[in-house]
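Worked problem 6 (solution included).
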Amino acid sequence: MATIDRTDPDQLAAAQALVIQTLTEAHATEEALVTTLRAHIAMTPAGGYRSLLERHLGETRQQARAIERRLDELGAGRSLLASGLDLAQTFVGQVLALTKGPVDLLRGKSGEEKLLKNAKDECATEALEIATYDGLHALAEAIGDEKTAQLALRHRGQEERMLEELRALIPSLAHATVLAQATGDPTYDASTTGAADSAGRFARETQDAVGST
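Solution. The predicted structure is:
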């Protein structure tokens, strides 16, 4: 595989700039995914699928923080924020995620179909992230940046596991969808979704607070 001449300052600087750019793109994607996952958890009933989303939400938040630390170590964190590049890319991702949430709530004829469509979208996002970390790993190796290369491998492994587990869920989600719409026997229970659970916890906490006064 062809590589750059690391003794050439211009080549090295150009490659380092690509590493920083890709890290920034990955950070924007992870930040946007946090918003999307929270929206999907809110509409997903308790069970294996929601547990998977909740686990990956934690992983995604950790990944975003790890990328921020690496950008700081590369001396790019402050300069990117100053230039507005990271802010702009993150803003675009957040806008996409925030506008997508309400659409997710409305699409599909049934709750079961909404979950199936969400899972398919999540598969697409995971594939994009895997490709991003593939590219980041290759770029980091080209300049001998072992720390960034290892970060890319670690994050890619988490995305690959998530994609595999999501794909394993698709048949059961599709089966639930066809049963709900063809037989009129839905299994989707909105009272057990993440949003319902959060509302219940809030009500209990409020009641406890009032009772203790």
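Discussion: Residues 66 and 151 are 8 Å apart (CA to CA).
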